[in-house]
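Next comes this protein:
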Amino acid sequence: MRDSQPVSLESLLEKGTQDNNTLKSIQQRAVTLLKLNRTVIALLPAQLQRQCRVANYRKQLLILEVANASWMTRLRYELPALRSALRQQILPSLSSIDIKINPSLMKSESISSSTGEKNSSLQDGRGKREEPGRQLSTESANALKALAQRSPEKLRKTLERLAALAGESAGAADK
């Protein structure tokens, strides 16, 4: 009969059996990539640190992810210095650095800048997560109402509905 005692994950990872080699190699790879990410982030200028991360390292190729094309352009200016620093410090076999755009980095950055926390989102009363929405200012609502007065009927109704959203977003913010 098999021993059905609970076993800690740590002990599973430390065992060198054939069954656990895959799990152990995945853990080691994740730890390696996290250390590499910390090193790369430390070498980047402050503005790029929050917009960039290490995606992978394989066959002497480092793959970095950035939030959008403008950050990719900015990172390209830093590549020669980054490549030489990484070769000197931890990756002497590094041949090149590839940059990919990952829009989810921008989304997580916009959430963290609006809430003051990194990678967080708001929860409503039902426990569901909500992304913080945009709010229409009172000045914008007044400008839309003024424009609506000079617009054709169909456009006027649409602009008035849009201007009414300023009141809803202000009311939701007060709650």
Summary: The radius of gyration is 25 Å. The chain has two domains: 14-106, 136-168. The chain has seven helices and five strands.
